[in-house]
Amino acid sequence: MFMKKLLTILLAVLYAAVLCSACTIYVTDDNDLIVHFLDVGQGDSIFAELPNGETMLIDAGENYHGEGIINYIEQAGYQRIDYLVATHPHADHIGSMPYIVRNFDIGRVFMPKVTANTSLYESLLKSLKSKKITVKNGKAGVTIVQDGDLSVDIIAPSEIVEDNLNNCSIVIKLTYGSTSFLLTGDAEKEELSAIKTDLKSDVLKAGHHGSKTSSTQTLVQAIDPDITVISCGKNNDYGHPHKETLKALKAVGSTVYRTDKDKTVVITSDGSSLTVSTGMPSIKRAV
Question: Sorting pLDDT into bands at 50, 70 and 90, what band is 16?
């Protein structure tokens, strides 16, 4: 991709800046797109500052991350999540959503049309109902945002397979100018291979925490990412990321960042080039 000529990798460890709770976590131009891949251990949570001034939260880690995620968003200068996306109803993705819905200002909510017989899922639905928030069906063909050079499009799922909730994951293509992000939830190869939209993207959030069931060599070649972010816990029980995934990413020359090693990873786009910062604060567990 031509982006490889424009890509600038900026590695910044900002521990001193975060010692003070009043400090701003990340400072950038108002017209930038800033995507925070939050370190929530063996789970997923992505916070996006959109260049139109709105915000989006995709997934929310386990059920002890809610207070930490809200604190992170507030320290970035926001009091509202304009778009809340639950990719699929697994605990490591929606764990803290009930808490966040109850304790923060929420705009539109997108979820796949799938059910889960868990108390956590029921708690999320009750929290949404208590605030009279209507859930939008998160399926292929839905556009969340279209504003000039910025677009946020749901490109999967196109069908619901309830015997594998991973393959019901909302997959988002986030585009700003000539830069693009593919955010895959826990989508595995069956769901990703069925996507009709062009998968080629500058940044990939590897599906299912870097599992080999998501990032196959064929799919990685189709996406051809300059940068890949893997959200996984240190010394997790699943062996994520799998060596097959890392091998496939290495074969296409993708630079890999991992939340188990790099903590929260922040990628900024000005619409034509990308910068990456690592070592940003991890999300603390609630006491």
Answer: very low
Among residues 106, 147, 146, 99, the alpha carbon closest in space to that of 127 is found at 99
φ, ψ (nearest 5 deg) of residue 258: -130, 130
For residue 239, what pLDDT band results from cuts at 50, 70 and 90?
A: confident
C-alpha–C-alpha distance, residues 161 and 153, integer Å: 21
Token reading at 121: 């899922």
Return d(Cα 33, Cα 26) in angstroms, integer.
Answer: 12
Each residue's pLDDT tens digit, 86-141: 999 999 999 999 999 999 999 999 999 998 899 999 999 999 999 999 999 999 99
Using DSSP, state whether 39 is helix, strand or coil: coil
pLDDT at 17: 38
| Cβ-Cβ contacts under 8 Å for 115 (sequence gap 6 or more) | 89, 121, 162
Of 102-106, 110-114, 258-262, 283-287, minimum mean pLDDT range: 283-287
- Kind of pairing between the strands at 179-183 and 203-205: parallel
Delineate the domains of the chain, giving CATH numbers in brackets: 3-13+32-270 (3.60.15.10)
Q: Chain centroid to CA 101: how far? A: 18
Within 10 A of 247 (CB to CB), how many other CB atoms are there?
13
CB 232 within 8 A of CB 260: yes
Candidates 94, 9, 112; CA nearest to 57 is: 94
In the 8-state DSSP scheme, what is residue 30? T
**Is the bond into 89 cis (omega within 30 degrees of 0)?**
no
CA distance 87 to 20: 33
